[in-house]
Amino acid sequence: MARSLGTIVGSLGGTLRGEAGLQVERLAPIGDAGPADLAFVAHVRYAAQIQTTRAGALIVAPALADAAALRGACIVADDPYFYFACLTQWWRDQHDPLPAPRVDPSAHIHPLAVLGEDVDIGPFAVVEEGAQIGPGARIGAHSVVQAQAQVGARSQIGPRVVIGRRCRLGARCIVHPGVVIGADGFGFAPRDGRWVKIEQLGSVRIGDDVEIGANTCIDRGALGDTVIEDGVKLDNLVQIGHNVNIGAHSALAGCVGVAGSATIGAGCTVGGGAGILGHLSLADGVHISSFSLVTRSIQQPGQYTGVFPIDDNAAWEKNAASLKQLNRLRERVKALEQAMATAQKTQKQP
Fold first, then answer.
1. Which residues, other chains included, contact 57 with Cβ-Cβ below 8 Å and sequence gap of 6+?
2. In the list 68, 123, 184, 185, which could disulfide-bond 104, CB 3.0-4.6 Å?
3. How far apart, in whole angstroms, are the C-alpha atoms of residue 135 and residue 155?
4. Among 142, 176, 242, 249, which one carries the catalytic annotation?
């Protein structure tokens, strides 16, 4: 199943330097690539790897083209990382193409559901009344598309996914196994020491080209909708609360939690394990470091970090105890400043 460098360049572009007929058997990381493998060097700061790798061919930026060509064949691309990303998609299509679409006999399709052309429905999947599945979409085994829900054209729904009633998923989305879209938001009213459920009457609206990682949950809105805009990428085990709005092309890494009614702007990133409290707003272009806790709205783009540094336990306990005293110390400092200001005024008086 090897492919020649000439075939790759003919399909994806770039400038080939070296033998077009060189066969590539595998795409590989540069550190363990072998003579039949193709790897990439993403940036000039990794130029030293060109001399140490055993890769049969490299993808490099123009600034590294001469150095790469001295050791062997290379593909020159303006953005090697982007080129490699496109190459992985092309390689997957070449070596692991999707099977021809079919509706498995064990699937349950309601008579009033609407299926577009070339839809693939896996074993034991359920498509309920009024649901709409767009052309070329694929629904994995044991997945459920509930009543009045919509799945856009060419979207891929993995196994054991639930798309809740009236929720809408755009075109070309990828939803990995175990995802739940449209579960009830966490809404309860306290009464006499008990919790009274607030029915969640909204839905979830997801744009085009969104990817949602395994076992991620996106809650439906309480009254309005939870909204995920075009091009958003959510990693595994992400929790999106009710009525959250995430702007286009933002990306949230694994185990991020976003509480209800928070708004995240376009082009934002949130590192793994970070948390965003409810009813906050993040401007476009805000980047949150891993394991940070966002407790206030952020109105300016930039990188933000809120992580208490790790330390040996004894030192950490002392520092944590000191933090508890910060407010009292602040008040003492304010009192001292006021006393000093009063003393200075007294000294200046005749």
1. 5, 18, 22, 24, 37, 38, 39, 72, 73, 74, 75
2. 123
3. 9
4. 242
